Amino acid sequence: MSTNDILSEKMMNEPKTFSLIEPLTEREIDILRLMAEGLSNPEIAERLVLGTETVRWYTKQIYGKLGVHSRTQASMRARDLGLLEGDDLPAPARAPLVAPAGVVHLPTYTTPFIGREEERADLIALLEDPATRLVTVVGPGGVGKTRLSVEVARAQASAFPDGVTFIPLLNVKSADDLNLTAAHHLNLRLKDSGSARADLLHHLSQRRLLLVMDNFESVVNNGVDLVTEILREAPNVKLLISSQVSLNLREEWVRQIDGMTVPDDDDEPLETYSAVQLFVERVRRVRRDFDLEENRACVLQICRLVEGVPLAIELAAAWLRTLTCEDVAREIQRNVDFLASNQRDVEERHRSIRAVFEYAWNLLTDEEQKVFRRLSVFQGGFGRSAAEQVAGASIQVLSELVSKSLLQQNEEGLFEIHGLLRRHAEHKLETLDASKRSTRTTTLMGWLTLLKGNFEKLREFAENSLEDTLDGSSQIDKAFVLAALGILAGIDEDYARCQQLSEASQAQLLGSNISGLFAYLGLAIANCGFEDYAAAHRNIHIALQQMAELRIPAFILLCLPVTAVVLAYEAEPEEATELYSLAFNHPTSTIGWMESWPLLRRLREDLLTELGEEDFFAAWERGKERNPETVVAELLARR
């Protein structure tokens, strides 16, 4: 039992003969009342036009004068002392259950609610359905779950005669804390701590109300029992829960919330998309002269970089007080830790994207953290087989990561990691203490370096790893180091060494599909250098077959430049140009190819000459729109 648990229980059981250590000031009573309503320090600061640090100072004064150590204890002690409105009866005369009917207790916001029309309508329809009792709004941190839930609850308030109650759970850890917190926000008078659950259920059993429970992930392991009991004992109560983790109950309706809408096409009207609307609204709070049309390209880039996540958009917009829009976009691309704020009325956990990620990271088990670090190499998605081979991910771990809003499946059945989360997981992989790295983790860092197109760093990695991997490492790891050195030799146009190292990599394979990709890619590069296009065709075809099985778009794109070289030789210049374009314009492209392999620069010049400028750029634009997996399926079907 925690210290707070012991203190709360002691307060419940000791005789109600409290007296103030020192009288509270009028300001302290105002803050105490808002604390009792469930407002956070930033919300109290906004309501009373104070600084958040000032509210924290007053909170400490209130705790000291009441002789308590938490908000729950402060509210209970204040009621026992009759300090809050309506608490003028002596403690023994108070009824155990006194929540007024029809009261709506929801947070208030000073910024407009933007977008989410479809999600809002869907959630309202669920709550209106008599058969739906439990709705969970699930999504990663910063995506706007709380605000959406509050707006939906506010819209539905008239449907619940006994009101709507918001119950924040961020700092709640135990089942006992949950009981006390729920009772506190429902304004229940409890006989003692042991009766909290029973009193709570008895009260709810007689009510028709909506409970909005926020940040349920912090208490999910200890709180699900209360939810199931409410569903069983209180047939006219509905629950709207926001959480990074689904509850995994049969009665639950889960709705995954993603980023706000972002334009796919550069020429679409930006102002109709909610991500852009939010960005512009927030920017104009600090730059009243901000013009969307003048900053069209960088606004679109920022919204795409953060994939429509509202918190990231707000953090980016705040920087326009001191930076240009172009500078903000450039900084986000360079380092996602740039998305941070020092605004005083922002909660600590929402002051940076890294803080949001760390909160989610700490919800994972050690095994889930290991797997998620490894999965970060898959920019652009991956199939289940790739997750098993590369990250050692069982279906159970994948399921948990989906449940915790860190993975999701797209319409094509690929697993995806939100870009901001993936970059943070990638950072975890790259900065993992050397003493904790397995050989597989080290190899994955090499894969990541290759996919990023950082060939100089890859060269350093491969040369440093060569002796270690040849001395006792697995075939997969040995094969990758040899293949990586082979690919680098091919890029340097040392095709004989490229072929030698790639063949040595193949000798290590023992049927491993993942490592086979790099070996066959290296061989195809050597074949192109020797102008043996028939052999290049065979080897890149095998590599593409393996990618079709593993479903890793980023690795498919890695193979497309070589495929374009082969197609150009086979007199298919338009198809070669389209794949060349896809390889370098897709969000998960390995762009370092273009600068590093002279053969590719010559290919572009040859295709431009053969097709002419108009046809070349028409094919180039078509290539941008193509899907990597569809391209591979078409290539394999005709060969």
Describe the structure.
With 639 residues, this protein is mainly alpha-helical. It is built from 30 helices and eight strands. It has helices at residues 3-13, 26-36, 41-48, 52-66, 71-80, 117-128, 145-155, 175-185, 196-205, 220-233, 274-283, 296-305, 310-318, 325-334, 353-361, 366-375, 384-391, 395-403, 419-430, 439-451, 455-470, 475-491, 495-507, 513-529, 533-550, 553-569, 573-585, 592-596, 598-624, 628-638; strands at 104-105, 134-138, 164-168, 210-214, 238-243, 252-256, 408-409, 415-416. Helix 2 (26-36) packs across helix 4 (52-66), helix 3 packs across helix 4 and helix 20 packs parallel to helix 22 (475-491). The longest helix has 27 residues, at 598-624.
Set down the secondary structure blueprint.
Layout: H1 3-13, H2 26-36, H3 41-48, H4 52-66, H5 71-80, E1 104-105, H6 117-128, E2 134-138, H7 145-155, E3 164-168, H8 175-185, H9 196-205, E4 210-214, H10 220-233, E5 238-243, E6 252-256, H11 274-283, H12 296-305, H13 310-318, H14 325-334, H15 353-361, H16 366-375, H17 384-391, H18 395-403, E7 408-409, E8 415-416, H19 419-430, H20 439-451, H21 455-470, H22 475-491, H23 495-507, H24 513-529, H25 533-550, H26 553-569, H27 573-585, H28 592-596, H29 598-624, H30 628-638
Parallel strand pairs: 1-3, 2-5, 2-6, 3-4, 4-5
Antiparallel strand pairs: 7-8
Helix pairs in contact: 2-4, 2-5, 3-4, 6-7, 8-9, 9-10, 11-13, 12-14, 16-18, 16-19, 20-21, 20-22, 21-22, 22-23, 22-24, 23-24, 24-25, 24-26, 25-26, 25-30, 26-27, 27-29
